[in-house]
Write a structure and sequence with these properties.
Elements (H helix, E strand, L loop, with lengths): L1 E5 L4 E5 L7 E6 L5 E6 L5 E6 L2 E9 L4 E7 L6 E4 L3 E5 L3 E6 L4 E7 L10 E2 L7 E5 L5 E7 L4 E9 L7 E2 L5 E4 L1 E4 L5 E4 L10 E6 L5 E6 L3 E6 L14 H12 L5 H7 L6 E4 L7 E8 L2 E8 L3 E6 L6 E2 L1 E7 L6 E2 L2 H5 L7 H4 L51
Parallel strand pairs: 23-27
Antiparallel strand pairs: 1-2, 2-3, 4-5, 5-6, 6-7, 8-9, 9-10, 10-11, 12-13, 13-14, 14-15, 16-17, 17-18, 18-19, 20-21, 21-22, 22-23, 24-25, 25-26, 26-28, 28-29
Length: 402
């Protein structure tokens, strides 16, 4: 429901409560060349890293315009992840885990395999505060770490080659790397493919909040959405047909084929797709519910946000409904294609009504602010500040999964 972008002049925060309106919540030009900006859900806590000081993390209360703390590290910060319990700072060969309520350093994971892109994922569910990061620089091994107990949970041999993207679902019970694994056990649940015609570099993976869909974007012009359906053995017996018989024979044959071949046969194709007007440009995707309807959001590095309708029953090609500029005044750009497009076939995505009212948000449980941090310089392993990290009461409590 919110979007944060870093720019050459600072950073901007937006609210995504409506399709038609893109509301700018905050803009800061105090720090130039921001390449990392992470907001704690809908709260006033935002973490910023600038190219001017790439080894320093600044934590702000943006509504009050105050700095909560800042910490410096031994090398450049590559990524930051946070939930209600933990703040994780990823360097190329080490990871730092902070307690978000007082910013105290809880754990330093040293000598991690070289991770030049800062690839890591942290579950947004604070009860299952799992952290995943590459366990090898040459193979697709995943190291799974429990951010609550501060212990290694397991390692998952996910791929033969190096990892490109990681994503947890909202409850922290599934981890996606195109293959989907159960957490914390590491069993493979699903395997997908997005095409076999050309080499792609996955840039973004994300689950829907209900864990029913997984979205993947890459350096190509196509965004893929996969549906995670649970197959059971309690389905009614199919009528005896030639195709049904061959299907069973085909399934049985996979037990006797090499792993690479049988694995390819078990892969599922995309449930829904989007074809962008650009390719070769980095983009980030998200699956969200806006005005009570499922939407696919795609932001591109040229500073645009595209909003599509997603048909949760039939899938297919998603319909572009709005395009917003993130680098202008924050106002919506009209999508001329929508105005000129001929009538589409009757389907959920084509005929769903645009609601004019924004549904009221439910009151979230309290966010305990019983600790905090004052300004810091270089991280001391033994000495921390004690001031509180105070947010603004119940209006900005992060969502809680029940």
């Amino acid at each position: 429901s919110s979007l944060a972008i870093g720019t050459t002049t600072g950073y901007r925060l937006f609210s995504l409560s409506s399709v038609e309106q893109l509301d700018q919540v905050h803009e800061s030009n105090e720090i130039p060349d921001v390449y990392i900006v992470e907001r704690l859900f809908s709260s006033s806590l935002v973490v910023v890293v600038s190219h001017a000081k790439p080894q320093q993390m600044n934590v702000y209360h943006f509504k009050k315009g105050t700095e909560i703390c800042n910490y410096s590290y031994s090398s450049n910060i590559l990524s930051i992840r946070l939930n209600r319990q933990r703040l994780v700072v990823c360097l190329e060969e080490s990871i730092y885990i902070h307690n978000i309520k007082d910013m105290k350093l809880l754990k330093t994971i040293l000598d991690t395999p070289p991770n030049t892109t800062g690839l890591c994922a942290l579950s947004i569910n604070h009860a299952n505060s799992f952290l995943a990061y590459p366990g090898s620089a040459t193979s697709g091994e995943i190291a799974l770490y429990d951010g609550n107990t501060l212990k290694t949970a397991c390692t998952i041999p996910a791929h033969d080659g190096p990892l490109a993207a990681l994503a947890f679902n909202s409850t922290g019970s599934k981890l996606a790397i195109i293959r989907v694994f159960s957490i914390p056990g590491g069993q493979k649940l699903y395997e997908f493919r997005r095409g076999m015609k050309r080499y792609v570099n996955i840039s973004s993976l994300v689950f829907s909040m209900d864990s029913q869909f997984l979205c993947a974007s890459s350096n190509t012009e196509t965004v893929h959405i996969f549906k995670l359906e649970h197959l059971t053995d309690s389905r009614p017996e199919e009528p005896p047909t030639w195709s049904g018989y061959m299907g069973k024979m085909f399934q049985a044959a996979t037990n006797y084929l090499p792993a690479q071949v049988s694995g390819m046969m078990n892969q599922d194709r995309a449930f829904a797709t989007v074809r962008l007007n650009i390719s070769g440009q980095r983009n980030i995707c998200a699956l969200s519910t806006i005005q009570k309807l499922p939407r696919l959001l795609v932001t591109t590095s040229d500073g645009h946000l595209y909003i599509y309708n997603l048909d949760p029953q039939d899938g297919g090609e998603c319909v572009l409904i709005k395009k917003h500029s993130l680098l202008g005044s924050g106002k919506m750009e009209e999508n001329e294609e929508n105005d000129l497009r001929p009538p589409l076939p009757q389907s959920y995505a084509a005929t769903v009504a645009r609601q004019s009212t924004v549904p009221s948000t439910s009151t979230m449980p309290g966010y305990s602010e019983d600790g905090g941090a004052l300004r810091g310089e270089v991280i001391p392993e033994h000495e921390f500040a004690t001031g509180p990290v105070c947010l603004d009461d119940e209006n900005e409590f992060p969502p809680v999964s029940i």
